[in-house]
Every structure is written in C-alpha cells, then in structure tokens.
Amino acid sequence: MPDKHTSSPIAFLDGSYMPLEDARVGIMTHALHYGTGAFEGIRGNWNEDEGKTYIFKLKEHYERMLRGAKLLFIDIPYSIDELCEITVEVIQRSGFTEDVYIRPMAYKGEEKVANLNLRALGDSFFCLAVPFGQYIDSDGAISCCIASYRRIDDTMVPPRFKLAGLYLNSILAKTDALSSGFDEAIMLNQDGHVCEGTGENIFVVHGDKIATPTLESNVLPGITRQTVIDLAINELGLKVQERPIDRSELIDADEVFLTGTAAHIQAVGSIDHRLVGSGSVGHLTKSLQDLYFPIVRGQNLKYLHYCTPASYLGVKKT
Ligand code: PMP
C-alpha cells in the first residue's frame, strides 16, 4: 500500500496530459453549442488494501463510445486499446486514493458556429477523472416519480448511444423530480412503457422473476445492466426477462432497482408516493449488491477480468 499523497487531477486533451484546470475549450466549440459529442461515464473504484484503482469494464465503455462517435461522424486517432491506456495513465498520473468518475468524450471540437454538417467539422477527444462518491445520496431505498417528459425515440436521436445533446431529455426529467422532492425520475418511452431512470436502467422484480426493458425500448444498453443480468443468471440461478414493462407493473412489484455506473445498484423504495414492497432494500436487490460491490473493487478473483488496475506512478509532470 503506497504512502498517502495529495491527488491532483490530470486530464488528457488532444494528445497531451495536463493539469485538469489547464484543459480548456473555446466558446466557439461546436459541441458546446449543439451537444455533438459521444461520451462515457466510467468508475474507478479505490481498493484500499491494494492501494490501487480498479476501473470497471473499461473496454466495454469505449466500445459504446465509439459506436456513438460513428453515428456523429467523429473520427478520433486512437484504437480501443490506446483509449484504455490513456485512461489508465490519467488515473496513474492523478494519484487518487478514493473512488473516481472518469469522463472521456469524443466530440466536434472545431470552433465553427452556424454549421450543422457533422462531416464539415473537426474532432477532439478528452479524458478526465474526478473524485466521486455516492451519486444518489441514499444508503437505502430512494423515492422516484414517473417523469412527465417521455424518453426520446430512436427515430429522433438514438438513446442507445451516449450522446451529449441527448442528455437534455434526462436533465429536464431529473430536475423536475428533484424540485418536487423525489430522488430520481423513471422515464416512459413514446409508447408509454417503462424505459429507464435519467441515468440508470431499471429492473422490476415479481417473486423470483426479474424483468428489464428490452434494448429496443429506447434504453441505453447499460454496462451495469448487462453485469446484473449475468450475475442474476450465473450466480443466483434466476431467469431475467427482457421485455416491455407496463407502468402499472411498477405498482405491484416486490422490488424495483436501478443500475448504472454512477448509481451502482440502487433500490427504489417508492414510486409516485406508493411503496415498492416494504419500501426498503429488497432481498434480491441486496443479494445483487452484495455480489456486485466486491467485483467492481477488484475483490472477487473470479471477476477480476472485469477490472483494469491503475496505480499511482508518483509522476506529476505533464
Ligand atoms: N441509462 C442512461 C440514460 C444512462 O445515462 C446510464 C449511465 N451511463 C445508464 C442507463 C446506465 O448505463 P451504465 O450501466 O453503462 O452506466
């Protein structure tokens, strides 16, 4: 376990490592005006015993980012392996000793306004990491509402990609939810079926049956979603249905939980003021949390291949 030191976040921007506070873009940057970026939210989980940060499913995140970049005609000069190496180096140079959130973005970085042709614009890439604890401030079960904003449809801006501009949809719903005293909003899609949280996928439990909306329901194909499906099947021996879910199924569910890189596995205790089950963290949600947390911290050898380790290098030069 290395000596404690002070971390100072280092960012990577268009080919160079630099202190995060020096990584700046101009006010004419296309992505700032129009949200023309494909990004990721990745967690680095601090393992105190080993003095290392374990980055969860790093490659899968970059695969998803590049799928979104393809839609936006963003071409960055790095392979997936190089993107993973850059990310590890950002963590190694920053020297964090706590959990971090990693934010890479491939975006239209050209300083050109009033141009709506993606193919006429130059591309940029950055990767930064910041200390990050709990996303939703609750150790127990949270309160949710059904958002009045519907999820954007695949025929509008495809939500299966993590595109910057798309997040206005989530942000409107999340802000309304918080303003009304809820912790999170659950969004319905255009046909009125349950879609996802504003930054999480959703699972509904009835008895020993777990269901989650299909990937064709305008959800983001969540990396935590897939991890939870695999753990439920392979470790708990359960069946997971991917199917359309009616809004009313939330009312008589035994358990509802949300999954996401930031939120981890988050129990939902009430929806629109109606208790879900007993209103506290359900048995199945708890079993999945107990499996998941050691895995993301590199403490379960069977799943160590899900994690990429990064140790502080002690170099502060950029
Ligand atoms: N849906 C949305 C809209 C999200 O923003 C996120 C967070 N990336 C998720 C689902 C969960 O995805 P993941 O498990 O890959 O973080």
Describe the structure.
With 318 residues, this protein is of the alpha+beta class. The chain has helices at residues 30-34, 58-71, 80-94, 167-179, 223-234, 283-296; strands at residues 10-13, 16-19, 37-39, 42-47, 52-56, 100-108, 123-131, 142-146, 184-188, 194-197, 201-206, 209-212, 239-242, 255-260, 264-271, 274-275, 307-310. The strands form 2 sheets. Strands 8, 9, 10, 11, 12, 13, 14, 15 and 16 form a 9-stranded mixed β-sheet that branches. Strands 1, 2, 3, 4, 5, 6, 7 and 17 form an 8-stranded antiparallel β-sheet that branches. A hairpin with a 2-residue loop joins strand 15 (264-271) and strand 16 (274-275). Bound molecules: 4'-deoxy-4'-aminopyridoxal-5'-phosphate. 4'-deoxy-4'-aminopyridoxal-5'-phosphate (PMP) binds at residues 41, 170, 196, 199-201, 220, 222-225, 259-261.
Report the structural category: alpha+beta
The number of distinct helices, counting runs of at least 4 residues, comes to 6
- Broad shape: globular
- What is the residue-mean pLDDT, rounded to a whole number? 95
Radius of gyration: 20 Å
Helix content: 10-25%
Count the strands? 17
Largest sheet: 9 strands, mixed
Could you say which small molecules are bound to this protein?
Answer: 4'-deoxy-4'-aminopyridoxal-5'-phosphate
Order of helices and strands: EEHEEEHHEEEHEEEEHEEEEHE
What is the rounded distance between the termini? 24 Å
The proportion of residues in beta strands is 25-35%
